[in-house]
Amino acid sequence: MPTGRTVLTSLATGIVCIIGGAARADDLTALPLDQLLTVEIVTASKFPQKVSEAPSSVSVVTADDIKAFGYRTLADILRGMRGVYVSYDRNYSYVGTRGAGRPGDYNSRLLVLIDGQRLNDSIFGQGSVGTEFPIDVELIERVEYVPGPGSAVYGSNAFFGVINIITRKAQAFDGTSVSAAAASYHERTASLVTGKRFANGGQGMLSISGSRTAGTDRYFPEYDDAASNHGLATGLDTDRYKRLFMKYAFEDLTLTAFFGDRKKGVPTASFGQQFNDPRSATQDRYLGASAVFQHAVSTTLELYASLNFQRYRYMGDYAYSPDADGLNRDVGYSDVVTGDVRFLHRGFSKQKLIYGIEVTDATRRRQENFNVGPYESMLDTDNPTHGYAVYLQDEIELGNKLIFNVGLRHDHGKESGNTNSPRLGLIYRLTPDLTTKLLYGTAFRAANALENYYVTDAGRFKTGPGLKPERIKTYEFVAEYFPRQDFRSSASVFAYRMDNLISLATDPSDGLLFYKNVNEASAHGVEVEAEFLGADGGRLKGSASFQFTRDGATGARLTNSPTQIAKLNYSRPLMHQSARIGLEGQFTGKRSTVTGGHVGGFSVLNLTLSNAKLTPNLELGASIFNVLNKNYADPPGDEHVDNSTPPRELQSIRQNGRVVRVNLTYRF
User: 18, 262, 297, 339: which could form a disulfide with 132 (CB 3.0–4.6 Å)?
Assistant: First the structure.
């Protein structure tokens, strides 16, 4: 079984080779760590704060990081963050944080934002992070991840954390660029980005992209018999998407719109399907538009007002038998309008007071399920909902060394009822170099439309007992040490207690799936991270996480919960700053599965060359992911069973071996 020593040894060897063979660069501004340490983040409190003053242990990945390590999706970006791991079931990617990664939850316990606007839909509560995420990573300025409960600021879904994707300003694209990429598994991608500054001072940008991955063969030993093509899903693991993104900014107003459409072939025969049937596929379509107005009313008062519309459409084709009439279609429609008005008041001495109101109107939450031919309706229900929230936060400086942060949000909604979410933070600067934080937070997640209202014979779903909102309380101690401009380190000790977690389960009496509240669970652990900037422009960052989770009913470790996670990243300029090379190692410990088994721990090494100038206008990038071609797998969920009698359950889901990717970008 791969160990942490494996990845550390591989990284050390690679770093020595890179340092020995690279040309020396003396420009310290290549990746200025001192700027990273003082960068203002906005996600923790909805107003700009230094990382050291935020009431959380914040992780930030910048556009430079994305390019240096060849990240292709939001899931890749999150994999590079401390304490985060991602599972992939060959359909969706599921994010685990601090040992909590419930299989099949569609990331509904993580709030995903695009420029501060909610992406999670109102049917599944899905926080998309894979190829279904509708924004190209090339358009991202930075990703801010705030672990821990965020309901005091954002309400439901901000249960285990908040991920805010901040897109680049239109002014970053002055001109036009076209890109093309090719990768293993027959992947082809193309994109165009153009930006323009207008005579009135406004700035606009437009991005169009598309990708297609032809189906490759996937072997599942659990299905290995003559009737199931000896366990080989032939050419079914397809993936294609198209995306559109627009942004326009003029003075205090920013307008944004995006469209994303992803169709994924599903080779796992999940939800009791016929194995190796090419009709099995899911489609996710996002359409979003927002208007944000930010204005300084006076020297002490700032206004923020936003209006956000999001439409989400899901369609899944499920092949339950090989007959022409054995195709079942599952459809979900979600239309949500959200308005947010808040004020940031600095009129009181050494205080930042933010208060506001948020109104949400989910005008459509329709779920359909029907047999395609001949047509037979199995489910057709629509459950619109609306809600509101009021919130208040105060950051108070008590002297020169102490900051007290307090927040409270009240949410009212159909599924959540009346819910109060408090948060407290005490931030103390022991010395100019050492800051400590003592944090307490609560959060909730209301049952979504899928969990409450989805009942159909297709897919083997039935009604469960009445669902209560999930609850979590967390306690955390953080120490951040910044002795020099070229070095930083941090450590966190945390403890979580979770109640009424909603989980997908199988009734052993009839084999049907249903959602239920389970007993309490707990997690506690330690995270450490350090980052160093070399005089030659090299940058080294490492982190390690140790977490211990427990099911309150059985005392066993939670499923899909590794005890150890380790990350090590190194990048440096090459050829007098004309290129950059990045080396990344990731280790994830073994995890138990819902079937009572486990998947082994693994280490993965990735290598990327970026910013390689072939001509003044032509740039080359290349990556090798899983350089050592490690064989590893992720845990399945309860839904990963086929239509055999009795149903066969997947014990693990094998991941990709070595992947090579090359991309070219031409700028006009």
Answer: 262
The pLDDT assigned to 22 comes to: 36
CB 523 within 8 A of CB 147: no
Domain span at residue 25? 4-667
Contact 313, 333 (CB under 8 A): yes
For residue 196, give the amino acid letter.
K
Question: Which of 175, 178, 206, 182 shows the shortest CA–CA distance to 191?
Answer: 178
Dihedral, 129, 130, 135, 138 alpha carbons, nearest 10: 110
What contacts 266, CB < 8 A, 6 or more positions away?
90, 91, 236, 273, 280, 281, 282
pTM: 0.92
- Written as one letter, the residue type at 163 is I
Please say whether the beta carbons of 85 and 96 come within 8 A. Answer: yes
Residue 346 token pair: 């600095």
3-state secondary structure of 7: helix
Token pair, residue 359, equals 């109104």
Structure tokens at 587: 């280790």
3-state secondary structure of 166: strand
C-alpha closest to that of 513 among 523, 502, 527: 502
In this predicted model, what pLDDT tens digit does every residue of 105-130 receive, in sequence order?
A: 899 999 999 999 999 999 999 999 99
Per-residue pLDDT tens over the stretch 126-166: 999 999 999 999 999 999 999 999 999 999 999 999 999 99
Number of structural domains found in the chain: 1
Conformational region of residue 614, where left means phi above 0, alpha means psi within -120 to 50, and beta covers everything else: alpha
The region that residue 576 occupies, defined by phi over 0 for left and psi between -120 and 50 for alpha, beta otherwise, is: left
| CATH number of the domain encompassing residue 60 | 2.40.170.20
The beta strands (E) that lie in 89-137 are given as 93-97, 110-114, 117-118
